[in-house]
Amino acid sequence: MLTPARRNRAVRTVAPATPVVAEDVSHDIDLLQRVGRRDVAAFQEFYRKFNGLLYSTIHRVLNDHQDTEDIMQEVLVQIWQKAHLYEPGKGKPLTWVTTLARNRAIDRIRAKQRRSKLNDDFEQEHKTVQPEFDEDTSDLVTSHENDRMVQSAVMELTPEQREAIQLAYFSGLTQSEIAEKLNEPLGTVKARIRRGVQRLESSVRRRL
After folding, report:
1. What gap in Å lies between CA 54 and CA 47, rounded to an integer?
2. Which of 11, 152, 165, 184 has a CA 20 to 30 Å removed from the CA of 86?
3. How far is the C-alpha of 146 from the C-alpha of 154, rounded, in Å?
4. Could you read off the pLDDT of 50-79 as tens digits, one per residue?
């Protein structure tokens, strides 16, 4: 256990925080501009300097390690692709990258909220309702069985696949509109819908 005197000495040995000096900012600007010119070495140096800050910025929003890792990768790709758009006159590189990271993390939260609402809406839409007129009993049973079979197959999809298919086939959006709505690359949305439909077909066939 440290005595008061030793604790005082321990406190005095802690180095003060290093202030951000103009030279550091200038170097960061140069680094980011080089990244914008597809300089791999500059990107690696940029990553070593800022990866801890990016991770903590994202994690403060999401509070989930796996989601933070996923968004971290997306942010790094964005930095590589968009560094050429950075304008020094609008702020420091530090501000630019942390804003990028925070916005991407917020997008993830909103996407999760949309998927949760989609699941609730889907379950509500497919609840069994009483027919308003008499139907042949065997046809009614078959119809209900088919509804349950399709609903069960849909619930086997990933939340992302379910959301994309809902928007495409129930909301009538084009793939480009879905990509814009979800803030996802068009290729990702196309692949998600294709895999989701294939998985649905396979699941339904197993139940027939």
Report:
1. 9
2. 184
3. 12
4. 999 999 999 999 988 888 998 899 899 999
